[in-house]
Structures are given as C-alpha cells and as structure tokens.
C-alpha cells in the first residue's frame, strides 16, 4: 500500500482533533475559488473546485473537464494544506484555553453535556427495561402472546407500522450512541431531541389518532421512514463517496425537507392561535391578580402563590413555546442537511447535474404527493345511491347500477371516508372550528375568519375530507341493495352445531318395469354424544317423476307413518316435541321438495326412552330411470346431524351399487340407460287405475315430435320441437345470484338450438324486487343473456304476481329463497317452471300450491322445463291412447280420456294397488291434475283439500296438503285425530322450523353488523353533528358550536401518558439545546 499523502494525514489529524470534515472542505473550496477569482477573474464563475482527499490534488472543473491552469495547481494545493493546518491550530488553541481555565470556570458547556447525557441514557435505559419486560412477557406468557397477536391483527398494518417505528427508533439511537458517539457526547442532544423523541411522539400520535389511513397518511408514513436514515447520517457525520448512493440520499433529504416545509406551513395556521391563546390567558391572569389604576394600586394577593404560579406557569409556557417552535427547528435542521448533501453531490457530479437532479427530485416528490392527496368525488356516488329509492322502474335503477358497479372500490371508499372521517382526516371541509377559533381568539370578522379557514382547507387538502357529512342513511341502505352486502359486513363464524351422528344410511333400490322404475328405501340410524335428546331436520328434493310412499320410525322401525292433514300433522309433531315424545314428520314443501323431521335421538342421560337402542327412521319413494340412473334425495339442509360418507351404503336389488353424482346405478341400469334413446314401446301398468288401463310411455315415443329431438346417452333434449310458442324467460339478477351458473344454462340452451329465438316468441325479463319491461329475444340480441348486471334483493314471488302478459308457459331462474308472502300471488293461467341451481329450497304451501295449480314445477335444469313444456304443448294421442300426465322421461297414457277420469264423481275414493309402483306414481300425477283443474284460490277451499287428503290417505303417499307422521302411542294418535278436525288443519307456517338445541350446542345464526354513520350521537360513533370539533386531534381545542368537545389525544390512557411524557421531554430538550447554542455563540 502506498504511503499516505501529506494532505490525507493532515485531514485525519484535523478530524481527530474534532474539526468537522464538511467545515474544512467547504472552507478549502471557498478560499481556492477566491484566489482563482483574483488571478483569473474572467473565468471564475464557471469553475468548480474538486479536491482529491487521498492525494491532496486540486482540480478546477468546467462542464466535467479539468481546466486547471498549470501555474495555479501548486497554489491551490498550498491553500488546501494551509486551511487544514489552520483548523488544527485553532482546535489546539481551544484545548489550551479550556485546560488553563479548568479551575477558573465552572464549564457550563460540560454541565449541559452532562445533563443531556443523563437525560439521553435515562430515557433509553427506561426503554430497554420496558423492552426487556415486553420480550419476557411475550416469550413466556402464552395468553399474553395470544393477546398481543390478536391486538396486532385488530389494529391493522398502518397502526402497527407506527408502533414499530416508535419502538425501533430508541434502539437505533442506542446503537448509534454506543457505536459512533462515544467521543462526541455533544451530539447526544441532537440525536435525542431532534431525532429520537420527535419520531417517537409523531409515531405514537399518528398511531392513536388517525387510525384508518388514507393514501396521504401512508405518504406521511413514508416520510417518517425517510427521516430515520437522513437524520442519522447527519448526526453521525457519515460521508458517502458513491455518486449513486449520494444521489439517493439527497433525494431522501430533499423529500423530507419539502415535507417538513409543507407541515410547517400548515402549522403556521395554528401557531397564531397558540400565541393568542397564551397571551389571552396571561392577560386574564394579570387582570385577575393586579389592578392598575391612576393610583397604581395593587389588590391584596398572596405573594408566595403568585410567585409559584409565575414560576411554574412560565416553565409551562416555555415548554409550550418550545414545542410550538419544534416544526420550524426541525425544518431548519432538514434544510441544513439537504443543502449540505447538495454541496457534496456538486463536488462529485458538478452543479449542472445536481441542479437538474434537484428539479427532478422535487417533481417526483410533488407527483407522489399529489397522487396520494387524491380523493374521489364521493358526493356523486352517494347521490346516485340516494336516487335509487325514488326510482320505480327496473330500467332506471339498472342504469344507475351499471354506472356504479365498475367503481365499487371508489363507492366503498366514499362510505369508508364518510364513516371513518374522524379517524382518517384531521377535519372535514364543512367543519368551522378553525374559523370559530380565530373569531374567538382575535375577534376578527366573519369574512377574515372564513378566508383563513378556506385557505387552510385548500393548503391541507390531502388531510381534509372534501365530501359532505350531511347524508341520509338511504344511501347506505342502497349500497347493500346494489352490491349485495353491507358496508361493514361482519360475520360471527360460529360453526353450526351438529349434535347427532349418522351411524348408518342404507339406500336400497328395488327395480321394476324392466328397470324403468325403482322403489328406493332410505334407512338411517342415529346416535348422539350429547346428554340431551336431539332433533334432526332434513330438507331435500326429488325428480319430477317421484313420489314419497312410506315412513317408519323406531329402533326396530316398528311405528308406521300415517297420512294426515299437513297442518294437523305438524302441530301434533311440535306438541309432542315439546313433551319430548317420539314423533317423525315427513311433509311436502314444494312441487318436488320435502322435509323430514325426527325426534328424539336419545341423549346419553335418557337410557329408558329406547332402552339403550339407537333411533332409526326409514322413508321410501318411487322414481323413474333417467340418463344418469335413479335419483337420490338432493339435500338442501342437513340440520344438527354430522353425515360421514363412509356411513352410507348403496344397493340395487340387494346387490352393490354406485353413485353417479346424485344418482344410483349399476351395470343393469347402465344398460337400461343406453336403451332410453331407442325404446319407444308402451308399457302397460300391471293394475288398472279407476277401472281403466294405464300405460308408461317414453317421451321420445311421442308421435308429434317427428324425430325433432336429441337423445345422447339417455339425455333427452326436445327443444328442437318447440316452435310457435310464446313464453317468458325470467332471470333473477339480484346480487345473490351473481355467482350462479343459471345464466350459463340459458346460453347453452340457445347455443344448442340457434333457431329457438326465431321459431318462438320469447320475452326476456330481468328482475330483483322489480320486474323489467320485456325484451323480445332474437338472434341479434341474444348477447343480452351474457351481459347481465346483478344488483338488488330478490322477490320472485312478487315478481310473478306482476307478470301480466299471457304466455304458453314461463321459466323463472333463481337461486334465491322464496320471499315472505304478502298479498301477491303466483297463480297464472299458464305453467310456471322454477329453476334453481343444484338444490331446491322449501316453499310455503300457498306458493307451492299455486305453482302446481298453474301446471308448473320446480327443476334444477332448464332443459327439463323445456321438455315438459314441449310435451304439454303437443298433447298428442298415441296408438289410440290418451295423454294424461307428462314427466321428465316418461308420460302416462290411459284408455279412458283425461276428462272422463277427472270428472269421476267419487274420485277421492279411488284406490290403487300400493304394491304397483307405477300405479302409486300415477295416483300422484292424478292428484296433481285434479289440483290443476280446480278453479280459484285453494286457500279457501277446505272441503276440496279434504278430498285431496282423503285420496292421498287412501293411496298412502305424501302430497302438498297431506303429510306422513309416525306416532308411537294412542295418546298421540288421539291428538292427531282431534287436530285433524280443526278448521286450520291445513295451516302452514311461513318460515322453516328451527331446532332449539338443548345445552351442549346452540345455533348462532350469522349476523351482519351494520355501522350506521348517519345517526346522531357522539363523534366516536360518527354522528352528523355539524361543526363539532373532532376528538383525538392533538391541537388546541376550541368550541365548534356544534355540541362537540375537545378531548386532546382521545382517551386518557397509558398511551396518552407516554405521548405527554415524550412531549414534555421534547419541549425541555429544545429549551436546553437553544440555550446551549446561545451560550456557545456568546462565548465565541
């Protein structure tokens, strides 16, 4: 390694003597330029001085070129050495003076440094102690650790960031003091009072006040993070030699300086109030304690009390004034730091580059700041939401919704701003408390106070809420209407309690009629680990060609179900449920929907009830074969029961079977499925129905189809045969249907038959709680089916009541539960087919009865509705046989005409052979046709419903007004008999039953918590209190005239005490630093 140059040795010596590096380098530059100007006056202004600190060589640069005159080079190097030597001599002379005056002077500077060192290390040792206790508690106390983690998740990343800054800054200060400032104790004050304490105070204030951040507050966070390296590098006097790294540091310094300048500007609006408030209080104090008149007399007063008040009051005022000066002192410090960095960059890169860089940095900072300051015009979104309520047509609402939906995030932010305005902004533009404060303190005019207020609102734009606080709750309610969820939707995700365990579920299918039909028995066994007796509830649906024909209950299935009026059966069940006695209830809740309730599943403490045996239930139904096999129950609800797939077994004709989705099949049924598309023969029922022969006929055998159908792997599509029909396609576009695949079914239907809209008259309706005007579908506008806007709440019952046009049939697609009944009715003079996705929910009896009466049904596939509609429209005879009823795969034909069978005088007493599954299915179809032929509302036709019940009872199957109930003793049977004679024996409840679980498990329905920001009350709950000053803002609080109050930093908590303590330390420290600087200046 080469020997160190003379200049480098002198530089090191000067630094070791305590000379500031930047100070002697700056003086070298100035003196060399001064000398150069004397010798070369014409060129001096375009030259920059660059000193090589390793060799001592000096270069004069112009446009990055060395233009040093050869004669001037030794002169420049001599000047550089002389400056350093002079600085060394001055420092040595200072040391001599201090040494000689040790005895004579008290060394006030030394005492000041000692006091600052005590404060610094006392402050930080307390921090170390607190940190140690926190780490120990977090490490060894499990509950405390969980509580801390939960608290972090609760307060969010923004507040956590500031708390981390407040916790980390002291640690950085300690490390810096130990590592770099051991011999420079005079820098401890700067480190503590201009770096550590301000950052801690600012971080804690921001963490505890503006707790719901805006982009502008995140920008503030970024500036605070910038301040850590910027101030540290300055205090520690660390020199950066890399041009790129220095450019980054200059950008950080400039950003922080500009931000501090901006904050000081904003604080200047508050500073006059502080001075005015202090002056007024001092004047009031003097006026109360002294009377100055012509005789200059004094009121009697306590001198000791006055002296104490003056001393402590003066100290208080000094601290307040010191804190008030803090923004300007910090800005001054940051200005020095920035310009020092700028000079260092000029030495490395030249002034042209540095000036351009500073302009670019300033522009970048302004762009970032402007971007973070942006606030969307929340008023326009809220105004649009408010309009919705007054719009009575679907189309008007849809137009607004289409404008709002793409901007959901902005609409949400508008409400978040409105709801959390006091947590996100320092004020709202409509707040007048700054204006009122100026009027109160300075007694200025309204115009002058308003000008100050408006100027501040403009200057503090990023931190002032620009929207209006005066909004009604209508907009908030309509937010949920448009977007399908409340603004602050919170769910308590309590898992549904399931206290019953399914021990086994055995599903046996016995086929008949050459595999065309099957009688399926579902047998289940239950147990519970709970000590209390339990109830279970199933809701399920079956296919169109299905009928429930049996129910059994008991450990040995010894209690058979009986058919009874629906209302009487349910009331009997619920009475026995309250008495904790054994019943089971199986009722029909829609065209294809059923509900099974079983009680009790004995608890572990009820050994006597079933003598230690498990409760069992069995129900059976008859169904036809379709393209996937035999339909299994599709459960929409399995309440209070844990179902394990391993507990379920499947059999067909006592042999093993497999499931295909929601269907049961084996090798024989698969062969039968393959033959569906080719088998067109009529199958005569083994037994007659009402003295006439009946036939089971495949739908593809209908002669009127003329081969216009598709049949692939047993799946039948008759849409090609649908021509000349006028029907309505009604699509639920409420928000809860947004993610459904029902619209995909419609699009698939039109793709498979492109001529469907040309060969039929199709009206497209959209609905939620309103019904749109119809749109006639053509091939040119079928794209409307894929361009749906989902919003609002669904009310499909009310929608159907508004459907005025006559159609051949209507198809309504919805995933929504049925709305509560009002005076509306779905009864129409044409079939209504309701399509749900996957599972079909329960309906109330009135709605289900009107759908059946209209000739409609409920499906999960729109093709099933189309197939049924085609067959009904064709209504063709076949080989001299008369069509009677149409189903999904098969239809029933009879020798007698349908009219003859329907007008039988004693139809309610017709009985069939219950051992013939086809006859039982036909009996159900017959009752459906009877219902369809009945005119008027069924609700008031009790005698007619009695007839339907008698028919269902004679033939032992469940129907809409007739339920199976399994009872275990004569008392229950007598109760049922008595209730069956009441006038309300068919009465239905409008809501599904809920299990009232005994201790050991309780249902907690999901709740949504909606915070209404528009109600009155305290500002902590967000009230629309005009002019109320905001809680939680750490400034002087003046009356706003709106009933609010100033509460400083919020609740007087431990965090508030920490902030106040740090504020006191900061104020005291600034006083010490200022007096120390003044003393040094006077001494020098």
Secondary structure category: alpha+beta
Looking at the overall shape, the CATH architecture of one domain is 3-Layer(aba) Sandwich
Strand content: 15-25%
CATH superfamily membership of one domain: von Willebrand factor, type A domain
Averaged pLDDT? 81
CATH topology of one domain: Rossmann fold
Q: Please write the CATH class name of one domain.
A: Alpha Beta
Shape: elongated
> Any idea what the radius of gyration is?
44 Å
Uncertain segments are 99-108, 294-298, 997-1053
Q: What percent of the residues sit in helical stretches (DSSP H or I)? A: 40-55%
**Total number of helices:** 29
Head-to-tail CA distance between termini = 42 Å
Main pleated sheet:
13 strands, mixed
Total beta-strand segments: 33
Pfam families: NusA_N, VIT
GO molecular function: DNA-binding transcription factor activity
Keywords: Membrane, Transmembrane, Transmembrane helix
InterPro entries: NusA_N_sf, TF_NusA_N, VIT
